[in-house]
Amino acid sequence: MRKTKIVCTIGPSSESLENTKKLIMAGMNVARLNFSHGDFDEHGGRIIAIRQACEELNKTVAILLDTKGPEIRTGKLEVEPIELVQDEYITLTTEEILGTKERLSITYTDLPNDVEPGSTILIDDGLIGLTVVEVQGTEIKCRIVNGGSIKSKKGVNVPGVAISLPGITEKDANDIVFGIEQGVDFIAASFVRKASDVLEIRELLEKHNAGHIQIISKIENQQGVDNLDEILEVSDGLMVARGDLGVEIPAEEVPLVQKRMIQKCNVAGKPVITATQMLDSMQRNPRPTRAEASDVANAIFDGTDAIMLSGETAAGKYPVESVLTMSRIAEKAESALPYQELYLKQRVAQQTTVTEAISQSVALQAQDLNAKAIITSTESGHTARMISKYRPESPIIAVTTEDRTSRRLALAWGVTPVKGRLVDSTDALFENAIEGGVKSGLVKEGDLVVITAGVPLGRSGSTNLIKVSQIPNNA
């Protein structure tokens, strides 16, 4: 059983019901909807297909809405494309004009206030490099350091400069409200730079009675890296968004930032997604490069909860093959994980909650007894996530009556959610847990399992019981 979760971006290559079903059967755990592209009709149709596919296949797949985020872009051009020549000069302006090779408009009106002579400005994922020479009013005169061809509405990055863009744009707010109405499970917040950006989204969710939707903060620039601790504290998880991050900070620093982000999420017991260009060549080729296979495996060795496919499943020629390939690489990497070392690394000398203490004990017992599985009866999914934090070799089966909890656990490493029934006694609670374990297909008659649950029944966060049991004949 694969423990690392797979996030797939849904797009033209995968949006049909048939293709969505193929992705689920290949191993998709979370479907990502990229709101940088498409409209409500497109995304609404994709959500319908995902839900129908899950129902027909009796599978659980969460839906993640990825916001466009606050961003800077160039304006429209008079003629496309234009050629920018190295060592020539170009002026960026906040005025709305049709761009030429001499003057180019930008969408962010405060940029002249944020940059100074010597600042670097990158366009189109860093392909075009400019150095600021002079700032006057709404105009920024730049020398072209790296030239090239450019089209309209390309992304602009300003590495090392504290940008004063809003944390959430009007488009993002409208998209999030749409997501609330559609019942999405996660919001991936783009270009998060500080804790207040996350709290702004949290406030919007609570205003619409959707505080249950979890926020995954995408770290995509130096500000986000610098404020990582405060961002993680108010987020439900993080995404290592290596695309823009690799433009905003030197490429050689990205692997170190990735490891640091994953390690901090592991300690906090919060999910972390490693994303961007993991199997990028599979957009065009049926097999990955050796470097891509190593990239996926190393993210798992680092401790990531989930790995993500972007263009590979959204617009590539081999969406299903990409998921199958990623799944095979993940399983092989997981077979080489030093599980005992991972437990010792995560273990803390003093737990701050009963759930934390129980979770640590359960992981240790499962390891010592070589248990076939850990079964947890959970309302909110918190206990399952806390056990997952200790990276046990035994699979974690989370039995819950809540569909919402099942989908939320789609991002939790090593956790298989199973629908259970309502119970009215402790004995029935343990019976329900065993039934759920058998239903998952991960345990059978005679298998030794470690079960955890809580009393009083039905109260979230009440985990306080551990039981070691053998699956009975009549289960």
UniProtKB/TrEMBL annotation:
Highest taxon, organism lineage: Bacteria
GO molecular function, one term: potassium ion binding
Example GO biological process: response to stress
Root EC class: transferase
InterPro entries with a match to the protein in the record: Pyr_Knase, Pyrv/PenolPyrv_kinase-like_dom, Pyrv_kinase-like_dom_sf, Pyrv_Knase-like_insert_dom_sf, Pyrv_Knase_AS, Pyrv_Knase_brl, Pyrv_Knase_C, Pyrv_Knase_C_sf
Pathway annotation: Carbohydrate degradation; glycolysis; pyruvate from D-glyceraldehyde 3-phosphate: step 5/5
Domain Pyruvate kinase C-terminal: 356-468
Cofactor: Mg(2+); K(+)
Keywords: ATP-binding, Glycolysis, Kinase, Magnesium, Metal-binding, Nucleotide-binding, Potassium, Pyruvate, Transferase
Assembly with partners or alone: Homotetramer.
Name recorded for this polypeptide: Pyruvate kinase
